[in-house]
């Protein structure tokens, strides 16, 4: 036994050490450490303990000393060892933090871990650890927009009120348009394209361009129904024609509350004059327009896609009668924004010709 060390084990400590040795689930390192202490308490010398446990002299002395200093808990826990790699100097950490706040090198838009590691002369994992510990994410941006509309609060409150608590005996429509839509048609006539058992429907891969068109759409906030109509141009005349379509589609006796953006066509004097002759449209006023620089308050930019998605995707451009519009069945709000990015040939009525 190491000179100056005397081990005395109480009954409670002996019972605990014997439990560790007898437990088959104990780690082997804990078992031979407990055996060293039990043999030392029994009066065995260092050489005898070495023969019984198969450990070196320094190992026996180390754990005898550890037990005298920390007790049984010291046998069950290893001391913290120094890192294999020296910690990053504080000067390097400060340099990484300072460079992160500066524009990146070259023509990059933001700092990346590999570029920062090369610029500072450390490893990529070191840069990532510094960024993680300081909560920095150079690749992420939070965008914001400040509206300069002096009536922002009133307009925002009014529009949100229409969404959350629509008036009784009224229809709330979110109106918007999608211009410059490609009018596409199949290049070859369909032959045997009907879907059958064991075979899906077919359509040509290539297509013919028939110019562009503009889609006007109104999304019913209550039930997700879409009222849509294609026009060849986007002027106040076409917008008034679309308002007439909505006027005919909404049941009589229902007040129409429409939410619009600030596009000039919506504020044309002819449009204002038409609205003045139709008392069912009281809400198309400056108060009910989306505040400036905050058009995301209008949920209708997704309604043109909803109209395209709701239209049949397997009919040719010339297969629809001229009077057909895109008024569709109700749609759930979960999927009204997942329409195709570009309209298919079937999304357009036959009155949209090849003329521009």
How would you describe the overall organization of this protein?
This protein has 356 residues and is an alpha+beta fold. It folds into 3 domains: 11-76; 90-133; 170-191 and 202-347, Ribonuclease H-like superfamily/Ribonuclease H (Nucleotidyltransferase, domain 5). It has 12 helices and 4 strands. It has helices at residues 11-22, 28-41, 46-53, 57-70, 72-76, 90-100, 113-120, 124-133, 152-164, 236-249, 269-276, 303-310, and strands at residues 170-186, 207-220, 226-231, 255-259. A 4-stranded mixed sheet has the order 3-2-1-4. β2 (207-220) and β3 (226-231) form a beta hairpin. α1 runs antiparallel to α2 and α7 packs across α8. The longest helix has 14 residues, at 28-41. It is elongated and about 110 Å long. Residues 311-326 and 328-356 have low confidence and may be disordered.
Summarize the structure in short.
The chain has 356 residues and is α+β, with helices and mostly antiparallel strands. The protein contains 12 helices and 4 strands. The chain has 3 domains: 11-76; 90-133; 170-191 and 202-347, 2-Layer Sandwich (Nucleotidyltransferase, domain 5), CATH 3.30.420.
Using brief descriptors, characterize the structure shown.
single chain; 356 residues; alpha+beta; Nucleotidyltransferase, domain 5; 3 domains; four-stranded mixed beta sheet; 4 strands; 12% strand
Average pLDDT taken over every residue = 77
CATH H-level name of the largest domain... which superfamily? Ribonuclease H-like superfamily/Ribonuclease H
Portion of residues in beta strands equals 5-15%
The tally of domains stands at 3
Order of helices and strands: HHHHHHHHHEEEHEHH
Oligomer: single chain
Strand order of the largest sheet: 3-2-1-4
Helix share bin: 25-40%
What is the level 1 CATH name of the largest domain? Answer: Alpha Beta
What is the approximate shape? elongated
Radius of gyration: 39 Å
Query: What is the fold named in CATH at topology level of the largest domain?
Result: Nucleotidyltransferase, domain 5
Report, as a whole number of angstroms, the end-to-end distance. Answer: 103 Å
Question: How many DSSP-defined strands?
Answer: 4
């Amino acid at each position: 036994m190491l000179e100056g060390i005397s081990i005395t084990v109480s009954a409670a400590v002996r019972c605990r050490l014997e439990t560790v040795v007898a437990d088959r689930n104990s780690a082997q390192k804990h078992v031979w450490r407990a055996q060293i202490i039990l043999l030392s308490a029994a009066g065995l010398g260092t050489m005898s303990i070495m023969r019984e446990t198969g450990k070196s002299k320094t190992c026996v002395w180390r754990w005898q000393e550890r037990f005298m200093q920390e007790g049984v808990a010291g046998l069950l826990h290893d001391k913290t060892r120094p890192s294999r790699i020296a910690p990053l100097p504080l000067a390097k950490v400060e340099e990484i933090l300072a460079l992160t706040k500066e524009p990146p090198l070259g023509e990059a838009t933001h700092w990346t871990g590999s570029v920062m590691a090369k610029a500072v002369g450390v490893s990529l994992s070191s840069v990532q650890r510094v960024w993680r510990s300081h909560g920095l994410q150079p690749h992420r941006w939070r965008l914001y927009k400040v509206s300069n509309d002096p009536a922002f609060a009133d307009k925002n409150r009014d529009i949100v009120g229409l969404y959350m608590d629509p008036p009784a005996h009224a229809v709330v429509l979110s109106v918007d348009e999608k211009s410059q839509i490609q009018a596409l048609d199949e290049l070859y006539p369909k032959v045997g394209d009907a879907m059958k058992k064991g075979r899906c429907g077919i359509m040509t891969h290539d297509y013919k361009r028939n110019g562009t068109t503009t889609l006007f759409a109104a999304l019913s906030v209550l039930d997700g129904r879409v009222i849509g109509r294609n026009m060849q141009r986007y002027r106040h005349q076409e917008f008034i024609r679309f308002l007439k379509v909505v006027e005919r589609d909404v049941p009589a006796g229902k007040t129409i509350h429409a939410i619009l953006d600030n596009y000039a066509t919506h504020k044309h004097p002819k449009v204002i004059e038409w609205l003045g002759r139709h008392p069912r449209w009281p809400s198309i006023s400056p108060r009910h327009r989306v505040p400036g620089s905050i058009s995301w308050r209008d949920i209708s930019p997704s309604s043109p896609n909803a109209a395209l998605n709701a239209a049949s995707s397997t009919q040719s451009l010339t297969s629809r009668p001229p009077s057909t519009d895109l008024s569709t069945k109700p749609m759930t709000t979960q999927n009204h924004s997942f329409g195709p990015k570009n309209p298919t040939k079937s999304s357009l009525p036959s009155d949209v010709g090849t003329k521009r």
